[in-house]
Amino acid sequence: MDEKVKANMLHWDDMVEPHVRSEFYDVEGFKKGRNTLDKITLEGVGDVKGKTLLHLQCHFGLDTLSFARLGATVTGIDFSPKAIKYARALAAELGIPATFVRSDVYDLPGQLSGQFDIVFTSQGVLCWLPDLKRWAQVIAHFLKPGGFFFILESHPVAHIFDNDNPKDLIIRYSYFLTEPMRFEGETSYAVSHIETQNPVTYEWMHPFSEIVNSLVSAGLIVEHIREYPFIFDKRFSFLEKSQDGFWRLPDGREDVPLTFTLRAVKPL
Ligand SMILES: C[S@@+](CC[C@H](N)C(=O)[O-])C[C@H]1O[C@@H](n2cnc3c(N)ncnc32)[C@H](O)[C@@H]1O
């Protein structure tokens, strides 16, 4: 495994326990029946009853298991051994049928067989992937002809701003950066502190054109792209949470895209 991807894996492994215990993920609420999927995802993916669904970068499985509760036959994959171990334990505890596979996204064709009606991924996934062309090929590989891919993700524009500026959106990073960015930290979007021996992570910028062109090059047909002026985590300290669970800019400001969705189909 690439050294940078390995550093990310070790870091993500250390995040699993704190995330499981966090208010952000509210595992107790999930155990009582809470569905973790937001309304945009539910509308964009549609009825999953009787469908097979592959969830890429599933973390410890709450969204995967939420799809299972809605009637899908689910498979979740993540490269973090602790995340997959916890996802399996949670599925067993709750009696929810689900398959969880520990794998790097890029290695998945060698680890898993079959094809799916739906390939799904969301909320903080693309920045960890060095190569979107290969990512899109993996998606196409696992989709049945006629099946579709759905992603809800932070908008590439949201990645150019300084997360540490307490007052406003100030541009800090190049939208067109191709080199990986190195970060060092012991916090996450869900918790204020993580005990970790692996604080270094690497992230990649992916302009919108790269995301779309990767999927098109892999043979998928884009059905829709939507852009939204709100986001699923408090990545800037001045964002305000709305009743729908999304975080918005203050004073009704809606001039910057912070989230996008994309749905694409594999031709018959
Ligand atoms: C921000 S989390 C996704 C959050 C998830 N949607 C949720 O709400 O629980 C990103 C996930 O990507 C996984 N990941 C990062 N790089 C990966 C890779 N190359 N292959 C597989 N999983 C990866 C991490 O382990 C982590 O669980």
Number of helices: 7
Strands of the widest sheet, in order across it, are 3-2-1-4-5-12-8
The termini sit apart by 34 Å
CATH topology-level name: Rossmann fold
Overall pLDDT: 96
Overall form: globular
Radius of gyration: 18 Å
Q: Helix-strand pattern, N to C?
A: HHHEHEHEEHEEEHEEEEE
What is the C-level CATH assignment?
A: Alpha Beta
**Uncertain regions spanning at least 5 consecutive residues:** none
> Based on the structure given, which CATH architecture is correct?
3-Layer(aba) Sandwich
What does this 3D model show about the protein?
By secondary structure, the chain is α/β, with parallel strands linked by helices. It has a single domain (3-265), classed as Vaccinia Virus protein VP39 (Rossmann fold), CATH 3.40.50.150. It is 28% helix and 24% strand. The protein has helices at residues 3-21, 27-31, 39-45, 62-69, 81-94, 132-142, 208-217, and strands at residues 52-56, 73-78, 99-102, 116-122, 143-154, 181-184, 200-203, 221-228, 230-231, 240-241, 247-248, 259-265. The strands form 3 sheets. It has a 7-stranded mixed β-sheet, with helices on both faces. A 3-stranded antiparallel β-sheet has the order 9-11-10, with no helix packed on it. It has a two-stranded antiparallel ribbon with strand order 6-7. Strand 10 (240-241) and strand 11 (247-248) form a beta hairpin. The chain binds S-adenosylmethionine. S-adenosylmethionine binds next to helix 1 and helix 4.
